[in-house]
Every structure is written in structure tokens, then in C-alpha cells.
Amino acid sequence: MEDPEAKGKKKRGRPGKQAPTSNKKPRKSPTDKAVGVARGRGKANGVAQHNGDGGDPVTLFEVVKLGKSAMQSVVDEWIESYKQDRDLALLDLINFFIQCSGCKGTVRIEMFRNMQNAEIIRKMTEEFDEDSGDYPLTMPGPMWKKFRYNFCEFISVLIRQCQYSIIYDEYMMDTVISLLTGLSDSQVRAFRHTSTLAAMKLMTALVNVALNLSIHQDNTQRQYEAERNKIAGKRANEKLELLLQKRKELQENQDEIENMMNSIFKGIFVHRYRDAIAEIRAICIEEIGVWMKMYSDAFLNDSYLKYVGWTLHDRQGEVRLKCLKALQNLYTNRELFPKLELFTNRFKDRIVSMTLDKEYDVAVEAIRLVTLILQGSEDALSNEDCENVYHLVYSAHRPVAVAAGEFLHRKLFSRHDPQAEEALAKRRGRSSPNGNLIRMLVLFFLESELHEHAAYLVDSLWESSQELLKDWECMTELLLEEPVQGEEVLSDRQESALIELTVCTIRQAAEAHPPVGRGTGKRVLTAKERKTQIDDKNKLTEHFIMALPMLLSKYQADSEKVANLLQIPQYFDLDVYSAGRMEKHLDALLKQIRLVVEKHIETDVLEACSKTYSILCSEEYTIMNRVDIARSQLIDEMTDRFAHSVEELLQEAEEADDDDIYNVLSTLKRLTAFHNAHDLTRWDLFGNCYRLLKAGIEQGSMPEQIAVQALQCSHYSILWQLVKITEGAPSKDDLVALRRVVKSFLAVCQQCLSNVNTPVKEQAFMLLCDLLMIFSHQLISGGREGLQPLVFNPDSTLQNELLNFVLDHVFIDQDDESQSMEGDEEDEANKIEALHKRRNLLAAFCKLIIYDIVDMPAAADIFKHYMKYYNDYGDIIKETLSKTRQTDKILCAKTLILSLQQLFNELLQDQGPNLDRTSSHVSGIKELARRFALTFGLDQIKTREAVATLHKDGIEFAFKYQNPRGPEFPPINLAFLEVLIPSSKFMSESMSERREDVWLPLISYRNSLLTGGDEDHMSVTSGSSSKTGSVRSKKGRPPLHKKRIEGEQSTEIKESSVEGSWMMRNDTLQTPGALQTPQLTSTVLRENRPAEHMPDPDSEPGSENDFVHKDTIVEILEIMKVTVVCRRIFRRGLMEDDAEPIFEDVMMSSRGQLEDMNEEFEDTMVIDLPPSRNRRERAELRPDFFDSAAMIEDESVSKTFLPPLLSVSHFDPPGLNPT
Questions:
Q1: Alpha-carbon distance 641 to 233, whole Å?
Q2: Complete DSSP assignment for 31-63
Q3: 1052 compared with 950, residue with greater pLDDT
Q4: Nearest CA to 548 among 640, 635, 612, 490?
């Protein structure tokens, strides 16, 4: 032993007092002990106390955790101590496992010798730290990750170093296996997890020992056979005896090792592979995979494979992943396939189905496993199995798609006999042998019927089939050359598909990143990837510079093929034209593009041509002048043709024939497409377009396509003029000229909103929204104050027209839309396209609201459709609501309540004043109000004023119009108060039984204020109240002795007059969770007969109950009093300057009623209410509840002004576990 090892030994503090001898026999068999555990973590004391040593010893656990010593030396040191004293060394090892589980306790030598294992378990359980559920194997951080590795390595090295003697002494292994078996059966996760990991690593080490023994046995057997087969004279009998003795010893050792492995497997694995904890199950499956790969002769059979197969159905993705990786290690070795045949047949369907696993990592590994099965046996998978994997190449998750691409490559696109295929290609005159594979790729793409996903297919195959996908020469040959003998002619669909795939391969090679929708963005390329990208770009440029003109010439009549081919130049390295002296190929390309422009009027083709010219005209390349000349010549010709055709069309007016219309439309489409990417302002296209639009408005007979294109071309012209002005130093004349142009165009667009043709109206609407956004007040931001003359603010007429357009064309049912499209049957794709168009229209208008270009109240007509059209536009409306609230909380709240009022008015028009409050329409308005409430957020302080404004406007609306039948009947909008209540949870059973009561909305709303106000008040003040010790129990409150104000007179009211008063309709109803609804004195009799308090028999004068209700509840209901009562008093002139507040005598309370309320809310805390003012002070200092400033100043009012409708604290946040 080296000195550091000896030093380490001393540090661990092995016992110095020699207890029993090293020859001591084991006290108990392995099955006699059971070890219990408890949850927790901690640092053990070590075993230094056993020998009485002083100092600061380090335990075996700490040595392994720190990992500073080589594991070999640590194990050698332990073996040396074991040879000196087996019990003390084993005690050190037992404490190691206990402490690795996070237990603070330490097993003493006396406990080890005198106590049963069950007693030791109970003792260790008590030492756990119950405050934490962490233990070393679950703790985060690199130190504990390293500890796990050291822990496993320690066990492996321990068995390796003991494999020749100690493990066969029938003591150490029996004790350790007994300990781990007991720990693994514990109900405590820490012990179970740690012991299972230790046992599985112990089993792996034993499997390695068994494998070595098996090899030694085979070698010994061969030596014995060779010696025995020698002739008698040369045979050495002594050697035969030695070999027989060695074989016998090896067999005995093998039997002992097998017994140990059986004990671990049956005692631990069989129970723990289905443990409740996923990590434990994963450990078992991972290790059994190691055993089967390491010692396949013993473990690779159905008796062990079945556990992996069963666990493929595990509910945790982590465990399923370990199963697949374990099987991958087996299927990688093709020699093991015969042993896996039965397993493959039994579990193949499950493995194939796991390619669609909800966990992407599991799906990837399942596809890789299926690929390995395919490599091992072509017949193992059916066509249906393969098809289940094929379609995954179109998955949006790139790792899944790449794995499926590898499978597809192995199955369809790998050449089985490259030399024979190359010879066949040469006989056919082809330069590449990939022709058949490319044809197969095209067929696969067509059969998948996902033509818009060619980029996904190419990206999936890119890593596995790059050689095939970069064979652009072969692709060009297939497109340009005639088929040779033995080849089939490509059909038109196949040619289109091949061109699309070719363009996708070019894009993938040039950009070197996945297509949109795959991956999280462009990652930084490595130096090697960057070099590959540059080489690929040069290669494709050199090839297609020559091939592209020929391809365009052949397919120039096919718009789809040409549109795809014209995307290729954007991936060129354009310096190659000049560096390689290939200007003639550039001229050929420009000639073909010109021919395409003259032959086609399809938008896709024209935009592709325009984009190609734009790329070739880049100023950084020397070819710019040559391309610019060709482009200018083309524009000149088209402009002259357009001006001439416009003159003819306007002269002939209504007599114009189809040829005249076609001439104008075809040329205008070409110019519009080019104006999108090129500055054509020097050709002054706006003038002729404006003339066409004015003529169409005046005559009303302009074809819709011409009108649409003229609008779009004029829009581009205005934008290019704005670009010139913003980039330079414009003069005042330039600004005035542009303003005149913009103003005239906006007027034309506004007139087009009333056009009979829907496409024209939609185009005009979109352009109006875009221009109003561009030329809004934001135009002068960023130091551009000089552009102030260009700012346009839409007037109210234009805003109303835009809003009406949205209501007429966006918020429509599918049936209405089908009828508007002349009864044509729409398939699913057309419906989606139509919905997308409507979403764009709505988004364009909502942007105007968000950026304060259109007045915010216009959004009320948008917000009211939130529920009805939630699936189609819910995200747009919700985002608009969020942005407008950030702009102005108060105005947003007014807009929300306005939307609810509009819905309510519509409902009144449909159903009349007698609303059915149980109808779906009323429920829909309530649900919309609830959704609005949830959008206010959790910060009640910030939203207090907005919520108050919303409720104030709602109450005003509810009492705005008097019932035409008389003042004793409820206002016609009274039912609107129910909209302000979050559902019906404040409604008691007695209320539900009397739904015919017309005053129920008022009662329900007031009760919600009472209950919600208390709750909100408590939520706001509970923190400070608890600190000052102001929380009081509901019983034992000392009565406050205050004198009642003298001069109050009792009020005698006849029954008939009480019933005739609309404020008395609620005297018999109970309010849930609050006081009984108090009697209200008629305001008609208030002038002659002042109301009087009705004393409660159980309440003494001036009791605290009076304080509670007079101060708090009156303030909660103040806004209702101001709106309802004061409005009537003011109207009749019945209130005098010094009159006392009416509700002062109306709000009665009693101790019994308060106790009822407290019993209803027995679980809620009771807090001190703010100190109340006397009656005279409240009369003099009462704030104006319609003044937001007053509400903010009065804190107590603000607190009680948060009714439960928009107080989000009443709703539990979603997804929170109370534990």
C-alpha cells in the first residue's frame, strides 16, 4: 500500500479495538436480515467513535463523494481492513450504503453484533431528516452527478478486486446482498432507490465475473481434452489432475456466483422493475440490457427478454426510453438476431406503434430500433409496418423526421449493388447511377400526397441521403434528356414533383439550415459546415448557370414549373458569372425570363420573375448594369402598352370588348408584380391607375380584377414615393404633392368600400388600413417631425365605414359566406383559405385600434363577438383587448362595458323587456362578462380604478331608463345588473325558487357586492391586520356604547304603500353568506315621513353591529344609492341641503344577523374594519362616487369597491397543486 492509501485509511477511522476474530462465522443467513429506511439526507458521523480515536475522521461515503482518491486505492484499503477484521470492515460498508441514501444515522458495532436487522432499520429510520425529500442520488449539481458515477464505480471495482477470494467466503456477499435486499423492499424512496442502484451495479459486476469464469472454464476444458487425447506416453497425469481440480473449483465458483445472481435477480430485480418510482424501473431495465449484451449465452433468452418487452408499455417515457436503448444494443449485433427472433415477432407491433409516442425522444429511439430490425432482417417488417414509419419524414419535430429519413433511406434509397448500377448507367449513357433512386424518390413524394411539404422530405433525408439529393446533374438529365431504352418517360406530375424537389435540395444546400417550422432558428455553423455550404453553393451555381436557361426554355409554357425554376437564381453565387466569364449564360437567362413575363399573367410566375430581376440587379455584383438595361427595356415596353390600352379602354367605356379589358388587365398585372420589388415611380403608373379607379367609380362598370390590380399598383407607387422622401431631404413641394396623392387615393379607397364586388371591397379595406397605419402619428417619431404634413387621421365617417365593413364581412357564419360565394361548394381547403382572409381583415382593423388610429370605443363591436367567434378570432380579439388595456385602462373598461351593453340591447330588441334570464343568450352575455373579468389580471391595486369605472357605467346603464308603466316598476335595463355578477354562486335556493321576482337582478347584484366586498376588503387588509393583532374572534366583542342621534322618529308605513314601493320587493329574501336584505323605506314617503331605525330586540343601542353595517355596507352600496335613490330625489326636488342620507336609516343590523353571517363564513378570518365616521360626518364628507379621483383618495371606499366580478382573487389560478 502506498502512503496516501494508508493515510486515507487512517482518516476513515477504522476501529482500533479488535473485536471478534476474522474467522468468525456469519450469525445469520442472507434471508434472516431485513433493513428498514427512512427518507432524508444528512452527513453521517462516521465510524470513528467505534475505536475511540480523536480527530476528524472521514467516512467511506465522504471519500467516494469527494472522489479525490482513485477508486482502486479506496477499494484496496477496504480489502486490507476486511482481512484484519471482517465485522468492522463490513460495518464500514453497511454505513456507506446507509449514508449514500441520505440517512444521518450510523450503525454502531454494538448494534451490528447484538441487534436484529429489523431493530437496526427502525433506529436508522429515526435518524432521517424528514424536512427534505432529497438524497444524494436525486440532488442536482455536478458534484452529486459525479457522486453517482463514483458510487457505481466503487461497487464495480469492489467486486472486481474481490472476485478471486473474498466473494466466495460466504460472509461478505451474503451480508451485502441481505442488506440491499432489505433496503430495496423499503417503503422509503431514498433507501429503495439507492439500494436498487447498488444491487443492479453489483449484479452487473457479478455477471462480468461469471463471464470470466465461463471463459476460464472453456479454456480449462480445452486444455484437459487436449491433454487427455495425447498418447499414453506423452500424457501428463499430474497435469490432468490439476486441470480436473481447477475445473472443479471453477465450477464451484460458477455455482456460487449463480446463486448470488439469482438472489439479486429474484429478491430485488423482479420486484423493483415494476416499482412505483420511474427512476428505479429505469435502472432495472438499463442494467438487464447490459447483462443480456455482456453475457448473452446466459441472459439473452425469453425468460429475461420478457421483462423488457412488458416494460415497453410503461407509462413513463423515461422507462420506455431505457427499454428501447437496451434493445438497440442487442439488435446492433447481428449475431444475436436468431435469439431475438421470437421476441421480435411478439413485440414488433408495440415497437412500431412507439414510433408515434407522445414523447419525442422515445419516438426517435423507436424509429432507430425499427431501422436496426430492418437491417437485421428485411422480412421482419411488413409493408404496413414500414408505411407507419414512412409518413414520419413529414413530422414537424426534426429529430423524429431525421430518424424516419434514415429508415426510408435504408429501405428504399440505398443501392444494393453499386457497381452493377454504375455499369447499367454507363450503358444507358447516363453520368450518374442514381437515376432509378431519384425516380423512386419522386414516386414516394407523389404517393404521400403532401406536395406542399417537399422541403420537409428533403430535410428528413439530408443527413442520410446527401449524395443522392446533391446529384443535380442526374436530376437535370432526367428533366432535359429524352429517356433511353429501358427507361420510362416522366409524366407531367413527376416532372413537376422532381423540379420542386430539386429546388428544395438547392435551398437546403445553399442555406444549410432546416426549413421554416423545423428547429428553433438558424444556428451558427461550424467551420466544416461553412466550408461544405460554400462548396455546395459553388457547385450548384456552376451547374445551373448553364442548365437553368435550358430548363426554362423547355418548360416556359407551364406556369407551375416555371415558378419553381425561377426560385433557383436566388441561391446562386452571382460572382461566378463574371469570374467564370459566363455572361452569355446570363443573357440567355434574361432572355428566357423576358419570354416568361410576356407569356404569363399568373401572379406567382410574375412575382418570381420580379424577384429574380431584383436579385440580379444587386449593386454589389458587376452584372448589375447588364441586368438593369434589360429590366428597363422590359418596363418601358410594358408601360407604353399599358398607357395605350388604358386610353382605348376609357375611350370605349361601356363599349369595350374582352380584348381591351384583357390588354389592360394583363399589362397591369405585370406592372403591379414588378412594382412590388422595383421602384417604378419614374414611369408614373399612379396616374393611369387613378384614372381607371375614378372611371370605375363614376361608371360603375370597371371589371373587378382591373380595379383590384389598380388599387394594389397605386398602393405600391405611394409607398415607393414615401421611401424616396424618408431617405432624402424632401422639399415642401414634395410633401404637398405626396399628401395630395395619398388624400385622393384614400378617398378612392373609401368609395370602393361600397363597391358591389367583394374582392374590390376587401382590397380597398386592406389598403386603407395599411395606409392609415403608415401615415399615422407614428410617421413623425424618431426625429422625423418634418413629415408632419403627411400624417392622416381618419374622421368619424371613415372609422364607421371601416367598422361596418368588419362587421359585415368578418363576423359572418359559414352558411352566409357560402351563399355570398354564389353557392359554390367549398372543400375544406377553401374554407380554411376564406377563414385566413377574414382573420387578416380583422387583424388589420384591430391594429388601427391598438395604435390609437381608430377610437377605442369602436372596439366594443369587436369585443362583443369574443365568445361567439372564439375559435376563429379569439386570439386576435384577446390580444387586442390586452394591448388596449395597456394603452388606457379606464377607456378599455368603458369599452368592455359598452360591448356588454350592446349585446344586452340586442337581446332586449329580440325578446322584449321580459327577459328569460335562464336562456342561453343571457348566459352567453354573463360568460362574456366573466371572460372579460379574467383578463384584468391579479393585481387589484392597478386595476381598481378600471373595475370601478366598469361597474359605475354598468349601474348607470341599468337605471338609465324608467319603466314606461310607472316608477313602481323596475327599470327596463335592471336585468343588466346580473351581467356584472360572476355566475350565480351568490344566489341562494330561495332566490332560485322565486325567479319570477323582477327585482332579483338588483338583489343578486347587491348581495354580490356585500359578499365580494367583504372578501376583497379582507384580502387587502389581512396582512396589516394580522401584524397589529387586530384579528378578533366573532364572539366576545365588547359592545361600543354610543348614543343614538336623537330626534329620530318611528316610521309607520301602510302595507299597501310598502308593497307599492319598488325598493321593498326584497324584504322577504335571504342573501347567502350575508345579512338578510334590509327593509328599504319608500323614497316617495321620504319627504313627509323620515325613516326610523327598526331596533333589533337582541341589539342594544349603539352596538358594534350598527358600526359594522352603517360604515362598511353603506359604503359598498353607496354607488347604488347615488344612482337609484338620488336620481329620483333630484328629479322630484325632494332632497334639501341639510337632509340626512336616506340609506342611513334604512340599513339596519342586528347581532343575530351578524352571527348568521359569521356562521356562514366560519372558515374566514374576522378583521378590524376601518373606523367609522358619525352620521353627520358621513353626510358632509361623502365623496362623489362618479369621480375617479374621489374613489382613489378614499382608501376604504376603494377597498370595498372591488366587487367579485372582476376581482380575480376569487378564482384559483389554473394548474396549481395545493400541496
A1: 116
A2: GG------S-------SGGGTT--S----HHHH
A3: 950
A4: 612
CA 934 from centroid of its chain's CA atoms = 20
| Mean pLDDT confidence for 918-945 | 84
Torsion of CA 344, 346, 352, 356, to 10 degrees: -140
The cell for 471 is: 446529384
Higher-pLDDT residue of 83 and 228 is 83
- What is the spatial distance between Cα 51 and Cα 15, in angstroms, rounded to a whole number? 4
d(CA 945, CA 936): 11
Cell of 450: 403532401
* CA within 13 Å, CB half, 578: 11
Alpha helices in 127-277 (DSSP H): 142-162, 172-184, 189-228, 237-264, 270-272
Q: How confident is the model at residue 735, as a pLDDT?
A: 92
What pLDDT, on a 0 to 100 scale, did the predictor assign at position 813? 79
Q: Is the dihedral of CA 1186, 1189, 1190, 1191 positive or negative?
A: positive
Prediction pTM value: 0.73
Dihedral sign for Cα 847, 851, 855, 858, please.
positive
1047: pLDDT confidence band, cut at 50, 70 and 90? very low
More confident position, 47 or 805 = 805
Residue 149 in 3-state DSSP? Answer: helix
Q: Please give the pLDDT value at position 372.
A: 95
pLDDT score for 487 = 67
Angle at the Cα of 236 (from 231 to 239), degrees rounded to 5? 135
Q: Which residue has the cell 472454464?
A: 217
Burial class, 1207, CB count within 10 angstroms (exposed 0-12 / middle 13-18 / buried 19+) = buried
What confidence score (pLDDT) does residue 463 get?
93
User: For the chain, what is the radius of gyration of the CA atoms?
Assistant: 44
Rounded to whole angstroms, the Cα distance separating 577 from 615 reads: 13
Chain mean position to CA 190: 33
CB contact set of 1047 (below 8 Å; sequence gap of 6+):
none
Amino acid at 203: M
Set of cell numbers at residue 129: 431528516
- Asked whether the predicted pLDDT for residue 244 surpasses 80, the reply is yes
Cell of 819: 351563399
H or E segment to which residue 616 belongs:
helix 603-616
- Mean per-residue pLDDT, 431-448: 87
Cell of 908: 332586449
Cell of 311: 416494460
Give the 3-state secondary structure of 810-834.
CCCCHHHHHHHCCCCCCCHHHHHHH
Among 579, 570, 619, residue whose Cα is nearest residue 589: 570
Q: List all residues 6 or more positions away from 918 whose beta carbon is below 8 Å from its beta carbon.
A: 995
> What whole-number distance in Å separates Cα of residue 561 and Cα of residue 571?
17
Which residue, 886, 807, 893, 875, is CA-closest to 852? 886
Residue 707's SS3 state is helix
- Going by C-alpha positions, the residue among 812, 803, 810 that lies closest to residue 769 is 803
With H, G, I as helix, E, B as strand and everything else as coil, classify residue 1133.
coil
pLDDT-derived band at 297 (thresholds 50, 70, 90) equals: very high
> Which amino acid type is present at position 232?
A
Q: How far apart are CA 1066 and CA 1166, in angstroms?
A: 28
Asked whether 962 and 1123 are in contact (CB, 8 A), the reply is no
Query: Whats the size of the chain, residue-wise?
Result: 1219
Q: Compute the distance between CA of residue 929 and CA of residue 983 in angstroms, rounded to an integer.
A: 9
Q: How far is 94 from 1213, CA to CA, in rounded Å?
A: 48
Grid coordinates in use for 194?
Answer: 439507492
* Cα distance between the two ends of the chain: 54
Spatial distance between the Cα atoms of 50 and 999, rounded to a whole number of angstroms: 85
- Return the half-sphere exposure (C-beta side, CA atoms, 13 A cut-off) of residue 486: 9
Nearest residue to 1082 via CA among 1112, 1051, 1113: 1051
Mean pLDDT of the region 39-63 = 48
